[in-house]
Amino acid sequence: MRKRTISIAKTNSNAPATGASDAACGWATLATGVAISGFLLWRNHQPMDFNEYNLLNTALILFVPLVVILLLLRREASDFGMTPGDLKGGVIAALLLFVAFIPILLLFAPMDGPQEYYLNWLGEGSGSGSIRGLFFDGRHWSKGGTIEWARLAYHELTMAFYMFGWEWFYRGFLLFGLSRLLPIWGAVGVQTLLFAALHWGKPLPETLSSLPGGVLMALLALRYRSFLPCFLLHTLISAGFDAAVLYNHFYK
Fold this sequence. Notes:
By secondary structure, the chain is mainly alpha-helical.
């Protein structure tokens, strides 16, 4: 049986077919990634509501890398993982991994930290307004409230678009860009550390799981030559965790 390996096709850094060299792409990716991640690490801990948070983050992690690639580096977005790749294999792998993640979601969803954090994000005020009538009773969120289904659909669609930008930034732009400058495991490590840094302030189980999660997502992107399977997996995990949080809040 032929052995499969993870690899990324690289162009000749001294004589690229078009645009900047691979080395220039790698340095530009590193500088952009550190700058955006550092800014968001600060800004995301300032007061923002659901819409402002998603608008600001998506503008930076989705559109700024495209401007850097297309206008500054004069390269194609497909050089950075924005391509279907092995789409069928990637979709199957993402679905199987999501099934494997379901027990983890069910384990963490009832905990006080995730319940408080995500109910706040789903609630009124700074949240999306998907749940009406929640109030803080001094220890944890009350059992009150009602689901606004139209707002919940808006919440999940917004988060799906956010996850598209998130995965494009880390498992597309950063991973494939840094691989032109660093060894593969160096690129995997740098994007994982920046990815984990943006989880600071979230519930502890999510923060800790972002390290192995970042490595797993990177391997998925490399194996299927695209960030799209990571987008599908992350979106399913996000929506699935919201569903588990809501189930534990309203029915347990």
